[in-house]
Amino acid sequence: MPYRWDTSASTDQPVLSLRPHRSLPRRGFAAMILFAFTMGTLPLYGLLGTVFLWGLLPFILLMVAGLWWGLERSYKDGDILEELTLQDDTLRLSHKPARGQSQQWECNIYWVQVRSHAHGGPVPYYITLTGNGRTVEIGRFLSEEERQTLYPELEAFLRENAAPQR
């Protein structure tokens, strides 16, 4: 799952960390570049020693460089982190986008409402947190199934932690 609840002993309350799914890990990235280079240069082995090799080689290297650049750009664009933390009675959501300023939202946990919008949002099963006069989104980059799984977990987390302590 691209999200996980950190319930380690170092924190007294769980922390929800959300990141976009990475379908191509770094090892796969290296393998893809090597595969593209190998397949691109394979036809050139028959042209060794001819002038045609030097005419085609720059285009093949440009193709490999373009693939490298595109995959690196995809990694950088997906470098998003959202964290939902609870400290005392304050629920805090921080959103760190790939580019731009980090955004913070906080509210007293007793007033927070979580909603899932099956239709009408920018994505199906859009999850929002409402409180302190604002409505914020959470996990927009998750898949539809992941948002459907996350919603009941968020509801249970808020219900457990907003209940009066005895």
Structural description of this entry:
- The chain has 166 residues and is an alpha+beta fold.
- It has two domains: 3-20 and 82-162, PH-domain like, CATH 2.30.29; 26-77.
- The chain is built from three helices and eight strands, in the order E-E-H-H-E-E-E-E-E-E-H.
- The protein has a five-stranded antiparallel sheet, with no helix packed on it. Strands 6-7-8 form a three-stranded antiparallel sheet.
- The two termini are 34 Å apart.
Write a brief caption for the model.
With 166 residues, the protein is an alpha+beta fold. Helix content is 37%, strand content 26%.
How do the helices and strands line up, and which of them pair or pack?
Layout: E1 3-6, E2 15-18, H1 26-41, H2 51-77, E3 81-87, E4 90-96, E5 103-108, E6 113-117, E7 126-131, E8 134-137, H3 144-162
Antiparallel strand pairs: 1-2, 2-3, 3-4, 4-5, 6-7, 7-8
Helix pairs in contact: 1-2
Biggest sheet descriptor:
5 strands, antiparallel
Mean pLDDT: 88
Straight-line distance between termini: 34 Å
Any idea what the CATH architecture of the largest domain is?
Roll
By CATH, the topology of the largest domain is PH-domain like
What is the rounded Rg? 23 Å
pLDDT < 50 stretches = none
Helix content: 25-40%
Number of strands: 8
Please, how many helices?
3
The secondary-structure element order is EEHHEEEEEEH
Q: Structural class, please?
A: alpha+beta
Spatial strand order of the main sheet:
1-2-3-4-5
- Our count of domains comes out at 2
Q: Sum up the overall morphology in one term.
A: elongated
**Class of the largest domain, according to the CATH hierarchy?**
Mainly Beta
Strand content: 25-35%
